[in-house]
Each structure stands twice: as C-alpha cells, then as structure tokens.
Amino acid sequence: MNYNCVLLMGHVTRDPELSFMPNQSPVCKFGIATNRTFRVGEEERTEVCFVDVTAYGTSANTINQYVKKGTPLFIEGHLKLDQWEDKNGGGKRSKLFVVLDHFQFVGGKKDNSGEQQQAAAPARPPQHKAPTAPAATAPVAPVATQELSPDDVPF
After folding, report:
1. Does residue 128 or residue 142 have the better pLDDT?
2. 1-109 architecture in CATH?
3. CB within 8 A of 42, min separation 6: which ones?
4. Of 14, 64, 113, 137, which one's alpha carbon is 20 to 30 angstroms from that of 24?
5. Which of 65, 69, 73, 93 lies closest to 81 in space, CA to CA?
6. Where does the chain have alpha helices with state H?
7. What's the rounded Cα separation, in Å, for the pair 35 and 18?
C-alpha cells in the first residue's frame, strides 16, 4: 500500500509564473516557504524549508490571478520526482516538487492600504431538519476568539 500526501502552510516566495501546455491547459509554478522553530538547549532556532509547487487547470488560473509573493497559503498535494539528462553532459538530474491538489487562502483580505482585514466567516448552507417537539434550550455562551497579528506568525 502507498500514500503520497503533502500538507504545507507558508508564504509564497515568488510571484506565480503561468504557462500553458500544448493542449492550452494552464500550468502555474510558484514556491512556498515554511518555518519550523525548535530549541537546542536554551537556544531557539528556526529552520526554513523552500518547496516548489506546480498547479494545473482552474487552480493554476486562480493562483495566477490572486496570489503574489508573500501571500500566505495552505496547500495539499502530492510529491512528484522529475528526472532528466543534463544537456551539458552533467549526468542525471532530478527535482522533487509538490503537485497541488487543493489550496486555501489563509488570513484576511488586504485593503488598499495593505492592512490586513479579518476574514469574513463563510456563509452556512441552510439546514433542513424534520419538525420536532419544542425542547428546552440552554443559553449558548459566546466562544472566545483570539486575534493574531502578522507579528505572531513565525515566518
């Protein structure tokens, strides 16, 4: 049995590059960086991982239209290994990258001044329930929320 799944959340490292396959299907390539913070003794260290990502089809068009360097993204995809012979006689070459399957924008929308706005909650679909007898309901306490500033994010 095999399983090939990658989940990454980070910031885009370069503006996406859109191109087209011979059948005119869109392909978008970009990079994403993720940080991992850990301790070695008393010292806190941060390790950055840079990953190349390739998106196809509708995702490629959407990313090309709305994403730029610095945009935070959550992506789900799978690893792919490309192998080829170097044209200059340098032997075999290979590159491991992520093929995007799904993605989500992370954080709020930026306004014209570049300030981060809080993301609007997604609309809930109507729920259809069978009629039931009235029941006593307890008051619902509000859920505490915590706002994060860009300074709270480790990358």
Report:
1. 142
2. Beta Barrel (2.40)
3. none
4. 14
5. 93
6. 57-66
7. 26
User: What are the extents of the domains in the chain?
Assistant: 1-109
* pTM exceeds cut of 0.85: no
* Phi, psi for 59 (deg, rounded to 5): -60, -40
Question: Where does the pLDDT of residue 110 fall: very low under 50, low under 70, confident under 90, or very high at 90 and above?
Answer: low
Which phi and psi angles does 113 have, rounded to 5°?
A: -85, -5
Tens of pLDDT, residue by residue over 34-51, are 999 999 999 999 999 999
Number of Cβ within 10 Å of residue 105's Cβ equals 15
- To which H or E segment does residue 103 belong? strand 92-105
In total, the chain counts a number of residues equal to: 155
CB of 77 closer than 8 Å to CB of 99: yes
